[in-house]
Amino acid sequence: MRPTDLTQHGKDTERSRDNRPADGVTVHAIRASRKREEQGQDPSGRVESRPALWAALRELEAGRSLGEVVGSSGLAWPTLERAWREAMQRQHLIRQHLQSRRGLTSLLRYPERGPWGQSSYAGNCNGYLIVDLIDYFKPQSVFDPMEGSGTTGEVCFDLKADYVGCDLRSGFDLLSSLLPDRQFDLIFWHPPYWPGFRYSDHPNDFSKARNVTDFLERLQVGFQRLADRFTEQGHLVILIGDGRKNGVFYPIHNAIIQWELLPLQTILIKAGDHERRAQHFRYGPSPFIPTLHEYVLIFKGRDT
Ligand SMILES: C[S@@+](CC[C@H](N)C(=O)[O-])C[C@H]1O[C@@H](n2cnc3c(N)ncnc32)[C@H](O)[C@@H]1O
Questions:
Q1: CB count, 10 Å around CB of 224?
Q2: Pick the residue with more confidence: 20 or 76?
Q3: Are residues 154 and 94 in the same domain?
Q4: What is the mean pLDDT of residues 226-239?
Q5: How remote is the CA of residue 110 from the centroid of ligand 1, in Å?
Q6: Nearest 5 degrees, angle CA 257-CA 166-CA 147?
Q7: Is the beta carbon of 149 within 6 A of some atom in ligand 1?
Q8: How many domains does the chain contain in total?
Q9: pLDDT at residue 34 greater than cutoff 60
Q10: Is 41 exposed, middle or buried (0-12, 13-18, 19+ CB in 10 A)?
Q11: Are the C-beta atoms of residues 292 and 257 closer than 8 Å to each other?
Q12: 119 lines ligand 1 (CB under 6 A)
């Protein structure tokens, strides 16, 4: 595609806001482009950091031309142009989603996971869940202490929520690192599943828990540490699944509620994004009813 100036992009944006048809605006297009980027096929040959890209996109939104932002950011023109196009496509997907659903209910089922984060990352969460939470609670600020592939951060960028995210893979340990010295309107916490994928050999990696007791102890410490990091009107949202090992069922979500560390405001049931795979899981010595759902536990502050 020939590089164009922001004014041209601006016109595109207006068109898509009003009447651009959905054709061509597909999750697959964004994923394909992301995959090329991951494989190092960026025409510029450079790998750009997300914060740098996001800052540059904000400048474009503020009305600066593509040429100006390329100059000030040092980013390659094709990289920036593609990121801008993808951001427009994601805006379109968000508008479509919010217009087509009838409002948030306690039952969540998403036909697509959306282009946010990396679908190849183990336990990657559905971006539309984050869209729904942000659309409902309207937080100004969001914290994700186990951001994994960065799904929450990308949705926050699109919905213009101030975002702080970290993960063990980038050196932050929820059990021992200093937490951000501030409070957030929304904390979205998506820990590893137990038993499940082993993310690393770090001793404090939740996925390295020796048994369910060890896993629950880690969860409880993490919960306690997060419990005072949200604002008075804010919320702590935990996305969690139950476990099954060697024929024994472990209702992890129930254990969390029983701690009564914070008032539970509600529970949403989310249909899994892994339905076909789950049909074939063997939860022990013999097959048993496959688990096709997980829980979104929504806690609020003590005084709200
Ligand atoms: C289920 S994944 C999160 C996926 C993420 N929501 C996404 O969409 O990609 C759980 C994450 O917890 C991280 N993790 C495990 N133990 C941790 C710890 N002690 N401190 C911080 N992060 C941890 C893992 O590295 C992993 O990325």
A1: 12
A2: 76
A3: no
A4: 96
A5: 22
A6: 60
A7: yes
A8: 2
A9: no
A10: exposed
A11: no
A12: no
